[in-house]
From TrEMBL:
GO molecular function: metal ion binding
Phylogenetic lineage: Bacteria, Bacillati, Actinomycetota, Actinomycetes, Micrococcales
UniProt organism field: Microbacterium aurantiacum
Subcellular location(s) of the protein: Membrane
Protein name (Swiss-Prot/TrEMBL): Succinate dehydrogenase
Transmembrane regions: 29-52, 72-96, 108-131
CDD domains: SQR_TypeA_SdhD_like
Length: 152
């Protein structure tokens, strides 16, 4: 070998990319876009809940019931829930792929991540859209909620 020649690197040969969509690229793009969207959604959520009105002392069942009565806030919270859970599960998937070397263990952990994220997404979405503040209200009380539920 002469002084002008550079030795070949010792890195292993990378396998050829499979045909089809590049899911890692789309996962990377999703993490960036959802991160920016989550910053907007979370700070909007915190601003409305803590800065407007009575602050933290004003957050009670009535506040949540009033917020979930509006389709705008329902969709705001569901979008925040979906983006956060998928963002977190994708980040955990990346960590599992980086540190778990056994293929079967990695596959089981990634499946467990996506199943738990999917379960929480379904459960959270059901809670937001089926929230009923009048469920289980007794008619003997003179609370504001009783009056509101009686009007419905």
């Amino acid at each position: 070998m002469t002084a002008d020649t550079i030795a070949a690197p010792r890195s292993p040969r990378t396998p050829a990319r499979k045909s089809g969509p590049n899911l890692e690229k789309w996962g990377w793009i999703y993490m960036r876009v959802s991160g920016v969207a989550l910053i907007i959604l979370i700070f909007g959520h915190l601003f409305v809940n803590l800065m407007l009105g009575e602050g933290i002392s004003g957050i009670d069942f009535a506040f949540v019931a009033g917020k979930f009565a509006s389709p705008f806030w329902q969709w705001w919270d569901v979008l925040m829930l979906w983006l956060a859970l998928i963002h977190g599960a994708n980040g955990m998937r990346t960590i599992v792929n980086d540190y778990v070397t056994h293929e079967t263990t990695r596959r089981v952990l990634v499946w467990a991540l996506w199943l738990s994220a999917g379960f929480l997404i379904v459960l959270g979405t059901l809670v937001v859209f089926t929230f009923d503040p009048c469920l289980g209200i007794e008619s003997s009380s003179t609370d504001w909620l009783i009056e509101t539920c009686a009007a419905l």
